[in-house]
Design brief:
175 residues, 2 domains, single chain, Thrombin, subunit H, globular, mainly beta, 0% helix, four-stranded antiparallel β-sheet
């Protein structure tokens, strides 16, 4: 049996690559072709407002936090940006040198608010505090990780990571 389409909406004339549920009636869409923008949409696709994400020009991944804030990443600027759903800046994470991001992709958060970020080209998942401070490298190639894209953490502490054609499952341990 094929799934039934419940809603269909045209997001905008621009291309959208990142999508997250902000609430049961609102979506956050990373819109390419507009300057530094995440659009907040209703379920018909009508733009309610746009949020300036600062350095993120073309959002590739969006995550909604437990506080209903948005965390957005983009490979081109090698950054992670955390903004409120009203568009106020919380922090920008753009480390240099050894901790520099090479291709930030998927984002998820822990039950305590810490941020987990997949870095595709560096083949690692890192952990940041809720305020954007580096904590540690969680997974690397030595753990069998290859080119992580998306990440998801469930209530049982299982960390799901897309890795090219596979979904790998790891036990996440807080430190």
């Amino acid at each position: 049996m094929l799934p039934q389409i419940l809603y269909y909406c045209q997001l905008s004339k621009q291309e959208s690559y990142a999508l997250a549920c902000l609430s049961p009636s609102q979506l956050a869409a990373g819109t390419w072709g507009q300057s530094h923008c995440v659009d907040i949409l209703d379920l018909t696709g009508r733009r309610l407002r746009s949020i300036n994400t600062g350095v993120i020009g073309n959002p590739g991944h969006i995550h909604v936090t437990r506080n209903n804030n948005l965390i957005v990443s983009e490979e081109a600027v090698k950054s992670l940006v955390h903004v409120t759903s009203e568009g106020d800046a919380v922090f920008t994470y753009k480390p240099r040198e050894v901790r520099a991001l090479t291709n930030p992709r998927g984002i998820t958060t822990t039950s305590t608010g810490d941020i987990l970020l997949a870095d595709y080209d560096a083949e690692k998942v890192i952990q940041l505090t809720e305020s954007g401070q580096f904590v540690r490298v969680v997974l690397t190639q030595q753990d069998g990780l290859e080119y992580p894209g998306g990440v998801c953490l469930d209530a049982d502490g299982l960390l799901y990571v897309t890795s090219r054609r596979y979904v790998e499952v790891f036990k996440f341990c807080r430190r």
